[in-house]
Design brief:
The complex is a heterodimer. Chain A is built from 13 helices and 8 strands. Chain A is of the alpha/beta class. Chain A folds into 2 domains: 2-117, 3-Layer(aba) Sandwich (Rossmann fold); 130-235, 3-Layer(aba) Sandwich (Rossmann fold). Chain A has a 4-stranded parallel β-sheet. Chain B is built from 24 helices and 10 strands. In chain B, strand 5 (206-208) and strand 6 (213-218) form a beta hairpin. In chain B, the strands form 2 sheets. A 6-stranded parallel β-sheet of chain B has the order 1-10-7-4-2-3, sandwiched between helices. By secondary structure, chain B is α/β, with parallel strands linked by helices. In chain B, helix 16 (338-349) runs parallel beside helix 20. Chain B folds into 3 domains: 1-42 and 314-392, no CATH class; 48-294, Rossmann fold (3-Layer(aba) Sandwich), CATH 3.40.50; 402-463, no CATH class. The chains are: A alpha/beta, B alpha/beta. Chains A and B meet through helix 1, helix 2, helix 3, helix 4 and helix 8 of A and helix 1, helix 15, helix 19, helix 20 and helix 21 of B.
Chain lengths: 243, 464
């Protein structure tokens, strides 16, 4: 299958390993990756801030470039929800409405794509650590992704998944919300990592780097030993030859 | 920034720094989720119950004009006087008019959020009447001269010790740590008030169009006493509280109890169909229903967000909201707190004055997921953001998002931006979290993510 991979702006800039891991996993499964390097962002920051016109400027480019693709995979539940759920709303009543709907139908978040579309579970990964999983809100509630990442993690050798009490609570990032209301955003993040710390996990794993960016930023500032890592990196992790 | 917005930010800053307060409210609400889930599981199918409820309220709200007329006609047929109030001032005037006409002085009230909405207590006290709240939580916040902290659990923010101290100070009672004793103290005071009150004021949980009755659901029995003992009963209700049929209560009463407080059914469920009828031995001599619009029809006119009028005020969305759980109810400065408050307050009191509530959300959607009548709460926050910005963009945000859109559409520029970011982040520590740090909103409490030594697109390039 020819898979078009949409790499969100913050993954491109700050978390390239999540994207690279997705590429390597999908290639190992025998698929061809198409990376549209003229695309940088889905337009969500402007959309969530109320600037729908500016959001459309960005989103039209996405629609046009992804028009003739077979299937589109996004390594983020949040950007995935933007394209899958919010593009049709953003373009309702415009000449792009149809294009937005047809793109929506072929967009998948990474873990959902692996489990639902490809039907895979075991990717041969090895990650000998105790981890807990954070459900990003967009993936969980907009796209209904809950079991898919857990199913994939269940096959990772050496990995112990311990659910935290607040797996489904928001981490407090919320895009521009984190800058407009930093005090609330920070308090939410503290609750989140507090719940993760209670599990005794070494890593918080998630299918959304934006949540992890927020949580890691807090952990670093507050000097907490917990680390964050994207699901794709865990699934791409192999035992090193010398170990 | 509007006064309401800057007050909200100030409150949020103070309250998120108050770790004791945060722990208190989270503990209180953690119990809620457990008992609610237990009661939800007793529904044969909670999701289809939500769907049915949403459909019934859709009919009620989309045919409000006919249901309201039917409701009023049926009420009047049994001697109830129905009043239509377009706004808060009219509603206050109508209620004060009724009280003055009866030459009444003392008023007992059961829980009525529309009363909070129109600042009824203030108006009644200014007009020289004595007003006592009879719901225990409301009574407590009234003694503290506070607004309800939560529209279902008004005194949720107070510990037993604080309530005991309050009673000692205001009522001269001995301190106690026993919830039963505290309740008995309030009961002793309130029983006298029911007997001597001239007027009872209540709200209404539902108004049944088919039969012309109001339904009140409560756990303390205080509403029954408020509505039955005084000579005059006045019920103030928002026009959206209509249900078309009596049988609808079979769904809505257990649903409200479940979603609101994690109960199978609320303790007392009563229907009020009119004043004392000929040949009856008790009940009030006169029954008035005041129907309040107060900009609800404006919300009705908004096809996109009209479903916010489905709300049955269970408070479920507050209980699961991570914002509410961190700042609590008083921070909002609005009658209706939490997600539903953030959705309806801009409609009821002005979008530009209250738009900050739409922005004060991470859009996590926990509210929408929990809402028993399926209001699309968090998407309405997005729509309100869009509406507010379309009316009045923020002067510096508009060009910023235009510039970002240009940047995002030119991948070469975006790449250059990342390279510059890599240089910038070397020097950023010099100004980090100082007054000249452009990203201080982030760095005040968090470390910035770093631009990677090799971006994804650079990595991709190396493979080819």
């Amino acid at each position: 299958m020819k898979i078009t991979l949409f790499i969100p702006c913050f993954i491109d800039a700050c978390f390239p390993k999540a994207g690279a891991s997705a590429v390597e996993i999908l290639e190992r499964l025998g698929h061809t990756i198409d990376y549209p390097k003229e695309l940088t962002c889905c337009g969500q920051p402007a959309f969530n801030s109320g600037y729908w016109e500016e959001s459309r400027t960005t989103a039209i480019k996405v629609l046009e470039r992804l028009k003739d693709t077979e299937v589109v995979v996004i390594v983020s539940g949040s950007c995935g929800a933007m394209i899958k759920n919010f593009y049709p709303e953003l373009f309702a009543g415009t000449e792009y409405e149809e294009a937005a709907r047809s793109l929506s139908a072929k967009v998948y978040e990474f873990s959902d794509f692996l489990v639902t579309k490809l039907g895979v579970g075991d990717l041969g990964a090895q990650f000998p650590h105790k981890v807990t999983f954070h459900d990003g809100c967009h993936g969980l509630r907009e796209l209904g992704i809950k079991q898919q990442p857990r199913k994939l993690l269940a096959h990772v050798r050496g990995l112990e998944l311990v659910e935290m009490g607040e797996a489904e609570s928001c981490c407090g990032f919320g895009g521009t919300f984190s800058a407009k209301f930093p005090m609330i955003s920070t308090a939410m993040g503290e609750n989140k990592y507090g719940s993760a710390l209670e599990t005794g996990a070494e890593y918080i794993v998630s299918n959304d780097s934006s949540c992890l960016m927020h949580i890691q930023g807090l952990l670093d500032r507050q000097g907490k030993p917990l680390r964050t890592i994207h699901l794709a990196e865990v699934l791409n992790h192999r035992q090193l030859p010398h170990s | 920034m509007t006064p309401a917005a800057s007050q909200f930010k100030k409150n949020a800053t103070a309250l998120t720094a108050d770790l004791r307060h945060r722990a208190l409210i989270r503990t209180a609400l953690k119990k809620y989720e457990v008992v609610r889930d237990d009661k939800v599981s007793r529904f044969q199918n909670w999701q289809s119950a939500r769907q049915s409820a949403a459909e019934i309220k859709w009919d009620a709200v989309n045919h409000l004009d006919t249901h309201l007329v039917e409701f009023a006609r049926n009420l009047e047929a049994r001697g109830t006087q129905v009043h239509w109030a377009s706004n808060a001032a009219q509603a206050r005037e109508i209620i004060i008019g009724i009280i003055q006409e009866r030459k009444a002085h003392s008023i007992i009230k059961s829980k009525v959020m529309t009363g909070e909405e129109i600042h009824l207590n203030d108006a009644l006290e200014k007009a020289g009447f004595e007003v006592v709240e009879s719901d225990l939580g409301e009574y407590i916040v009234q003694l503290r001269h506070e607004a309800p902290y939560h529209f279902v659990f008004p005194a949720m923010h107070l510990t037993r010790g604080e309530i005991s101290d309050l009673f000692s100070k205001e009522l001269g009672t001995a301190p106690t740590d026993s919830p039963e004793e505290l309740t008995m103290i309030a009961r002793r005071v309130l029983r006298d008030k029911y007997i001597t009150a001239d007027i009872g004021i209540s709200g209404a949980n539902f108004g049944i169009a088919e039969t012309g009755m109001i339904s009140i659901t409560e756990n303390e029995g205080n509403a029954r006493l408020t509505c039955a003992l005084p000579k005059v009963h006045i019920a103030l209700m928002g026009i959206e509280k209509i249900l078309p049929k009596l049988e609808d209560l079979a769904l809505f009463l257990p649903m409200l109890a479940t979603a609101g407080a994690g109960q199978v059914m609320t303790g007392y469920n009563t229907m009020y169909g009119g004043p004392r009828q000929p040949g009856e031995a008790d009940g009030p001599e006169a029954f008035h229903v005041v129907l309040l619009d107060n900009n609800r029809t404006q919300l009705l006119a908004d096809a996109e967000q009209r479903d916010a009028l489905h709300c049955i005020r269970c408070g479920g969305c507050l209980n699961v909201c991570p914002i509410y759980k961190n700042i609590g109810g008083h921070a909002y400065g609005a009658t209706y707190q939490g997600p539903i408050g953030a959705v309806i307050t801009p409609h009821l009191r002005g979008l530009q004055q209250w738009k900050h509530l739409s922005f004060a959300s991470s859009l996590c959607g926990a509210c929408t997921q929990t809402c028993p009548v399926k209001i699309d709460l968090h998407h309405h926050l997005l729509q309100s953001r869009r509406n507010a910005i379309a009316q009045k963009p923020v002067w510096w945000e508009k060009p910023l998002f235009q510039a970002l859109a240009f940047l995002f559409n030119h991948a070469g520029l975006f790449s250059l931006g990342m390279k510059l970011g890599r240089i910038g982040q070397v020097f950023h520590p010099l100004i980090k979290n100082t007054g000249i740090d452009p990203v201080r909103a982030w760095t005040r409490s968090r470390e910035l993510p770093k631009v990677a030594p090799q971006t994804f697109r650079e990595w991709w390039q190396t493979r080819k």
